[in-house]
TrEMBL record, chain A:
It comes from Paracoccus denitrificans (strain Pd 1222). It comes from the Bacteria. It holds the Pfam family PhnH. InterPro entries: PhnH-like_sp, Phosphonate_metab_PhnH. Keywords: Plasmid. Gene3D superfamilies: Bacterial phosphonate metabolism protein PhnH. The keyword RNA-binding does not apply. This is Phosphonate metabolism. SUPFAM superfamilies: PhnH-like.
From TrEMBL, chain B:
Keywords: Plasmid. InterPro entries: PhnI. This is Phosphonate metabolism. GO terms for biological process: organic phosphonate metabolic process. Pfam families: PhnI. It comes from Paracoccus denitrificans (strain Pd 1222).
TrEMBL record, chain C:
Keywords: Plasmid. It comes from the Bacteria. This is Phosphonate metabolism PhnG. GO terms for biological process: organic phosphonate metabolic process; organic phosphonate transport. It holds the Pfam family PhnG.
């Protein structure tokens, strides 16, 4: 019970504004790693994923929980702090889980030609998030960025759908980076 | 085309300062308080809440004060404020049959359960200016009478029993929300009603009037008009059940319209519906007439080209904030556009002169 | 939900509603001193979308929003209280949440008689006064002449 009711923003308007700014910056500069604070979600969810949920979801944003994330404690925490309705993957506007648990990622919404925004944002929990590995290029990246992605094929397939496609927020501890659909991903 | 220019900050600051001074008016006259506006300009407050699409009388009163009584500017302030607030959820649909009615009249039935209740209406006033109000004073207390402890059912239910009026069966289709998704046509009736509930009263009134004058005629009677308070019930996830968190004042209008019948439906009465925040019966009646006119396709009627039947025309132009935003932007600097126009006109004149000279 | 049929749920639903609908000043006067409590969710202003039904009975549609303030607290002995009140008064939301928590402790009988009962009585009086004024404007028709044209 305690884990459900605690761990939200203590000062929601200021903390969510800071967190939103960090998420916006992350989306604008794919691959760059940002540190965020203010959320203590129940295990096994990272601080960064908790911050993203508190900032981006509410009762009008259907959320899918995959794998370990689909636990009693987190369902209660989300119900109390954000009110986001929990839905199957195909209906989700946001999804949370490890990369394996989110598979196949092709089931998430990628938008429609006239409304590419009607797509899912995946919050991907990673064991490590470092500026090394896969090579990222595209809008928001001056030359290239490097990011330790779990794979590259799925992101290349997603890039091929542009302007449709899903967007990703990669989280690890208190750190996060974003990988929007506009980014070109190549093997290291 | 827009061009970023700098400069004018000092002029803008001075304009704001003067605006503040003009807003206050003659300092020898006492300043209005927000509470005075809320209590004594209640129908203006209601209009700002309805068209601002946010029920909060204190905020609407503040907006009216800030806007110097310009109600569309006040609606604009409320809409802007609304966008800064998180939305915690949606209420359960309000039960207007359980409304604590201040006013309830029917133009179709004289005797009905719950009676004809006039409420605090302007209807039977003589529309003569009351100079007594120019002086301050406390009005006589309103008379009271024993309130019968009986339900006040919807009038349309009386016709419903005989199968003479179209049914509105309960349904739990999630309501579309035009504040979250861009408007797509054709719009469902639920989406049209959301747009009309926050639409400009003047625009809605004129469209409704046009249907009465023959542009998409629907032969409407006011089946029932009711004004009063309803409880707002919200499901709180932390509790796991719904609780009443407050009350809102609403105006509801159900119109009854002639209907010859179609291939699938027998001759019966059809309905138009209006529901507006606050006490605003002109708007509620207008809304129900426009709602009914927009239903021509669903009811198998002819499209006569009337504006009130044209969903795209109505829904694209009913919002006074969209309208005023686009209208008023043309007064902002368009120096580059106009320079291009000027060049074009000069060139055409030159060419016209040259052609004339060549012809001579 | 299914719990809502349980009597304790009904009772809690009623007191949460009475606290939410209370005029903030009146609630503050009836419950001036709050016991020590921890904010689980600090008072936060937001909105609720109010829905209606087409024709009063049909398909739901969005009428417009209303302002609300919500708050959740925990008393030192562990009771958790929630509030979601109309308007933008943070002190009202906090006080209502504390009162909800107190209603789950040994202080319940005292809160019920000293806070909830006067609130309910005042709400009933206000409602009755409005209903009586409305009743005075109820039209009593009487037939002046009824007949057939000759």
């Amino acid at each position: 019970m305690n884990a459900i009711l605690t761990g939200g923003f203590a000062d929601p308007s200021t903390q969510s504004a800071h967190a939103f700014r960090a998420l916006l910056e992350a989306m604008a500069r794919p691959g760059r790693i940002f540190t965020v604070a203010g959320a203590q979600p129940p295990a096994p969810i990272s601080v960064a994923a908790g911050v993203a949920l508190l900032t981006l979801t509410d009762s009008t944003t259907p959320l899918h929980l995959a794998g370990d994330a689909d636990c009693e404690a987190l369902r209660g925490w989300i119900g109390f702090h954000t009110g986001a309705p929990l839905v199957p993957a195909e209906q989700a506007q946001f999804a949370l889980g490890g990369w394996e648990a989110l598979q196949p990622v092709t089931r998430f919404r990628t938008g429609e030609p006239s409304y590419p925004d009607r797509s899912a944002t995946l919050i991907v929990e990673l064991d490590r998030l470092e500026p090394e590995g896969a090579r990222l290029t595209g809008p928001g990246i001056q030359t290239e960025a490097r990011l330790s992605l779990p794979e590259t094929a799925a992101f290349r397939a997603n890039r091929a759908l542009f302007p449709l496609g899903f967007d990703c927020i990669l989280t690890c501890g208190a750190r996060l980076a974003a990988l929007p659909r506009s980014t070109t991903v190549e093997d290291a | 085309m827009y061009v970023a220019v700098k400069g004018g900050e000092r002029a803008i600051d001075a304009a704001h300062a003067w605006l503040a001074e003009e807003r206050r008016g003659d300092p020898s006259v006492p300043e209005l308080t927000v509470a005075q506006i809320r209590e004594q300009m209640a129908l203006a407050v209601n209009r700002v809440m309805a068209e601002g699409s946010l029920y909060d009388p204190d905020l609407a009163a503040l907006a009216i004060k800030q806007a110097r009584g310009d109600l569309i500017e006040a609606v604009f302030l409320i809409r802007a404020y609304r966008t800064t607030l998180p939305r915690f959820g949606a209420s359960r649909p309000v039960d207007t049959a359980a409304m604590a009615v201040d006013r309830r009249v029917s133009a179709t039935f004289k005797d009905l359960p719950g009676g004809q209740v006039l409420g605090p209406t302007f209807d039977y006033t003589h529309r003569l200016l009351d100079f007594a109000l120019a002086a301050e004073g406390t009005p006589q207390p309103a008379p009271m009478a024993p309130a019968p402890d009986e339900p006040v059912p919807h009038v349309t239910g009386l016709l419903d029993r005989d199968g003479l009026i179209e049914q509105q069966p309960a349904d739990d289709t999630p309501a579309p929300d035009l504040t979250r998704q861009p408007l797509e046509l054709p719009a469902s009736r639920a989406l049209r009603l959301q747009a009309l509930a926050r639409a400009d009263e003047g625009f809605t009134l004129s469209l409704a009037y046009s249907t009465q004058r023959g542009y998409g005629r629907t032969h409407a009677f006011v089946g029932e008009l009711r004004i009063g308070r309803v409880a707002v019930e919200v499901e709180l996830p932390e509790l796991g059940f719904a609780v009443e968190i407050g009350e809102v004042e609403l105006t509801e209008c159900d119109t009854v319209n002639q209907f010859k019948g179609s291939k699938s439906e027998p001759p019966q009465f059809t309905r138009g519906y209006g529901l507006v925040m606050g006490q605003s019966e002109r708007k509620a009646i207008s809304m129900s007439l426009v709602d009914r006119a927009l239903r021509w396709q669903e009811l198998g009627e002819d499209f006569t080209g009337a504006p009130a039947q044209d969903e795209e025309f109505v829904l694209s132009h009913c919002d006074n904030i969209q309208a005023t935003g686009f209208l008023e932007h043309i007064k902002l600097p368009h120096y580059v556009d106009f320079q291009a126009e000027l060049e074009l006109v000069r060139r055409m004149r030159r060419e016209a002169v040259q052609m004339q000279e060549a012809a001579e | 939900m299914s719990q809502s049929s349980q009597p304790e749920t009904t009772a809690r639903r009623e007191w949460i509603s009475a606290l939410a609908k209370a005029p903030p000043g009146r609630l503050a006067a009836l419950l001036p001193d709050l016991p020590a409590h921890e904010m689980l969710r600090a008072p936060e202003i937001g909105t609720v979308m109010v829905q209606g039904r087409i024709g009063g009975t049909g398909v739901p549609f969005n009428l417009g929003e209303m302002t609300v303030t919500r708050c959740s607290v925990r008393l030192s002995e562990g009771a958790v209280g929630h509030a979601c009140v109309q308007g933008r008064d943070k002190a009202h939301a906090a006080r209502a949440a504390v009162a909800d928590a107190l209603m789950q402790t040994g202080a319940a009988p005292q809160i019920a008689t000293q806070v909830l009962a006067p609130l309910r009585a005042a709400a009933a009086r206000a409602r009755a006064t409005r209903a009586a004024k409305a009743a005075a404007t109820r039209v009593e028709f009487f037939t002046m002449l009824r007949g057939e044209d000759a």
